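Hi P.,

Sorry for the delay on this. The queue was packed all week, but I finally got your sequence through. Input first:
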Amino acid sequence: MLDIDISPDMWTGPSDELKESSSLVSRLGSTIGPAMAGEPFGRRLSPLITQSYQELVSSFRSGNTTLAEILTQTAEALSSSASDFLANEQRISTAFSELRTMLGGIQ
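Then the structure:
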């Protein structure tokens, strides 16, 4: 039988890794962005190539920004799920303890 670990502690590591990946993607964009600014390859080329190049740069920036946002949102969702899981687990534990007390202190 397959054991599945659903403990919130197991979600923290992947959440932190996603946040780090998001940071790396953002840094990549800010590093490559200036290198892609201006003329393609630092050369003045035909307007047809320049226009295509500018569209490529714009698409890269947009995709890079979107990817960083998605990674950040996924990391936040994982962290939030872990927090909710812990809160629900605590509420259930408290309710169970109260029920045991009401039933006469069953251990």
